[in-house]
């Protein structure tokens, strides 16, 4: 058993990994990160998320299906037992704009979600190929992150604000650490001894509105545009959104905001009680950058050595893109499995 673990990164992946390690026999865990919960920065992705617990996997991405299924099971447990986590069970509607649903897609949708129903064709707009209603979960992000941090600390985990240019620098700075878990997200593009060129950012712009009467979440997916409504347990609703690999602007774009609210209103006019897209009760405008990766999430183990020759195991857990919360528990469980089993190199 590894004696001491250093987790790099304090977003949802880093915090969840820290909790899973402490719950599974790792007694000494420390998180070191540039940004900590409570920070507001365009470089710190987790606070900007909608955190609707639905899968982002394609129908044939069996690996991500299993990761997301394990995550959903944990969110169900949290929802039923830990009110302080602010995870709520939510009725959901998902519209899809792509070729007709395959039997394989329907199989996975029914496995991943509860109370699944296929939406009848006559209830769909002409441009929609199919859709589903089901029950899923939503995390109130600011409160959920605080709960993760509180839980991590209650288990004995420590957290420090530190910045490193490489994993090697981190392991030299913590000479008693046996393993490192790399949850730096897009930071792994810049770490000198990782430099993962498969990473790229997907800009997401959203609007937080006040609409306590909205209890159902909605999704309208296409290849280039995501429209979604994600209600939180405090009466606010995340309205989105965008999926933009080219736009690097950190400030909200007024034209994009207007387009988002127009699309959201068209999908659910009741959100402003039918008063039109200019009648939203706006709380804030938000921009975040999702750390996406060609080839999917990297959950992989390698061996590094300190300058004195000591062996250190490094386990990577990054590249979650738009589904960091949706895959958080499943990925962290696999990190634990990799660190416990010397025969495994990746999952």
Automatic annotation (TrEMBL):
Residues annotated as binding FAD: 45-46, 184
Domain FAD dependent oxidoreductase: 4-337
Keyword Oxidoreductase attached: yes
GO biological process: D-amino acid catabolic process
Cellular component GO terms, alphabetical: cytoplasm
GO molecular function: D-amino-acid oxidase activity; FAD binding
Signal peptide: none
Pfam families attached to this UniProt entry: DAO (PF01266)
Cofactor: FAD
Binding site for D-serine: 228
Domain of life from the UniProt record: Eukaryota
InterPro entries: DAO (IPR023209), FAD-dep_OxRdtase (IPR006076)
Alphabetical UniProt keywords: FAD, Flavoprotein, Oxidoreductase
Binding sites annotated in the UniProt record for D-dopa: 290
Family: Belongs to the DAMOX/DASOX family.
Record's protein name: FAD dependent oxidoreductase domain-containing protein
């Amino acid at each position: 058993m590894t004696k001491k673990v250093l987790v790099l990164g304090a977003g949802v992946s880093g915090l969840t990994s820290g909790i899973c390690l402490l719950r599974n026999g790792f007694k000494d865990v420390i998180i070191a990160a540039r940004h900590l919960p409570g920070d507001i920065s365009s470089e710190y992705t987790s606070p900007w998320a909608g955190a609707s617990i639905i899968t982002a996997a394609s129908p044939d991405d069996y690996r991500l299906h299993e990761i997301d299924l394990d995550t959903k099971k944990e969110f169900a447990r949290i929802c039923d037992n830990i009110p302080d986590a602010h995870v709520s069970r939510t009725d959901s509607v998902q519209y899809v704009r792509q070729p007709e649903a395959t039997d394989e897609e329907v199989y996975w949708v029914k496995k991943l979600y509860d109370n699944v129903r296929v939406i009848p064709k006559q209830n769909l707009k002409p441009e929609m190929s199919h859709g589903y209603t089901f029950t899923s979960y939503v995390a109130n992000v600011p409160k959920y992150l605080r709960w993760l941090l509180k839980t991590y600390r209650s288990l004995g985990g420590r957290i420090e604000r530190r910045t490193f240019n490489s994993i090697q620098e981190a392991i030299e700075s913590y000479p008693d650490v046996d393993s490192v878990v790399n949850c730096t997200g897009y930071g792994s593009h810049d770490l000198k001894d990782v430099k993962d060129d498969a990473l790229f950012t997907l800009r997401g712009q959203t609007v937080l509105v006040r609409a306590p009467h909205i209890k159902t979440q909605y999704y309208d997916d296409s290849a280039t545009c995501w429209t979604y409504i994600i209600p939180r347990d405090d009466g606010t609703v995340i309205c989105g959104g965008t999926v933009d690999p080219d736009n690097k602007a950190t400030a909200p774009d007024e034209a994009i905001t207007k387009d988002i609210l127009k699309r959201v209103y068209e999908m659910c006019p009741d959100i402003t009680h039918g008063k039109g897209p200019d009648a939203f009760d706006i709380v804030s405008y938000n921009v975040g950058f999702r750390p996406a990766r060609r080839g999917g999430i990297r959950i992989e183990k390698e061996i590094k050595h300190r300058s004195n020759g000591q062996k250190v195991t490094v386990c990577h857990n990054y590249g979650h893109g738009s589904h960091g919360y949706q895959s958080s528990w499943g990925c962290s469980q696999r990190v634990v499995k990799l660190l416990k089993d010397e025969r495994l190199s990746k999952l």
